[in-house]
Amino acid sequence: MSSFVLVVNTGSSSLKYSLVDGASGDSPASGSVERIGESSGRLSHEVDGQEHVEERAFPDHDSALRAALDAFAAYGPSLDSAGVVAVGHRVVHGGERFSAPALVDDDVIGAVEALVPLAPLHNPANLEGIAVARKLFPDLPQVAVFDTAYHHTMPPAAYTYAVPLAWRDEHAIRRYGFHGTSNAYVARSAAAALGRAPEEVDVIVLHLGNGASATAVRGGRSVDTSMGMTPLEGLVMGTRSGDVDPALHAHLHRSLGWSLDDIDTALNRSSGLKGLAGDNDFREVMRLRAAGDAGAALAFDVYSYRIRKYVGAYYAVLGTVDAVVFTAGVGEHSPEVRAASLSGLSRLGISVDPDRNAGPVDGPTFISPDSADVAVLVVPTDEEYEIARQALSLVEEGRQARHETP
Ligand code: AMP
After folding, report:
1. What is the tens place of the pLDDT at every residue in 343-358?
2. How far is the CA of 330 from the centre of ligand 1 (A)?
3. pLDDT tens column, 314-336
4. Residues 239-274: pLDDT tens digits?
5. Which of 16, 282, 286, 327 to mutate to test the pocket of ligand 1 (most atoms within 8 A of CB)?
6. Is 210 annotated to bind ligand?
7. Which ranges in 291-362 belong to alpha helices (H)?
8. Per the similarity annotation, which family is this (predicted)?
9. In angstroms, rounded to a whole number, what is the distance separating the alpha carbons of residues 182 and 207?
10. How far apart are CA 123 and CA 12, in angstroms?
């Protein structure tokens, strides 16, 4: 029986796809369609280490996914021969309802639609991807895998904002957390690298990509995370501010006359590294910093300091920490951030070995000295594998249940 899942991650103007073996994580092909809806778009299909590019217009998500399927037919591998068993969709917000992946039906679609006010940029695009895939693969199970689901294990003390009851009860105002699929994969891989079962280890996961979050994981379950009701809260990110005084909205509105939408957009799109250094790409920030740019130097310091603050907070939340784990673009590639964000923590048993930190990262890699109480690791994340794994296991559970039904 095949265990291949077609993983689809739809954004408002992009669509990423991968063919992934949900059992082994092997991915024979993956690709993306960028600038959907614009006059010129770009499809990139990678197979056997070779990239095939098509530059043309993709008017909508339907044409983008059709083009991806054509790319499988033209450049391989054949989806028919692979025997795809499910389509796995990344869905950003699963709200209070979804604590696990869900087999898509009209009820699930209605629930994801109802969550659009909590994720106005992401959920509509995710729904679009699901609608198109249902049309193109009417006979395949479609599985929604939610970014928020992993954090359902947070206790009320961690997820509750100190705001009036009516807001919490009637408007689902609470912390949800994101990057759940990455966290699930990375925490499990870190436990495996430590040679222990996930239920036995307590880790702090630092997912530092364009979006960034810190998560406290006790025994394989999230107990706190830095992103909140939306992905704006917490660490400094590419274009998001992370934590600011909540009174900032009122102040900017009163003093500049800005609308709430203007302020929301500015905090999500032109803050973070972009606001501090003028660029959201971490590599560019590091280049500017090396050239003596004061804004980029401050950006690096604010970025690393915020991470250190959360590591301290989550150390206190967990009580004991077996490992601190870095992942995603910046976490996997910036020894400077890893060293700076964990500096001065040796009394907590956390330190970074400079040679190991500067060395190559190939799979889970230890960068702490052997003598350290707390392991520090770099683990390349693999969200596509995690989505495929979860989708496959849901489909197999369903299959087993059908066999067991008398
Ligand atoms: P992600 O969202 O995980 O793709 O991460 C994107 C971020 O990782 C961007 O800010 C990139 O600049 C950063 N990044 C990627 N490669 C490197 C690298 N070699 N060194 C530093 N930052 C990097």
Report:
1. 999 999 999 999 999 9
2. 5
3. 999 999 999 999 999 999 999 99
4. 999 999 999 999 999 999 999 999 999 999 999 999
5. 282
6. yes
7. 294-318, 328-333, 335-341, 354-358
8. Belongs to the acetokinase family.
9. 8
10. 9
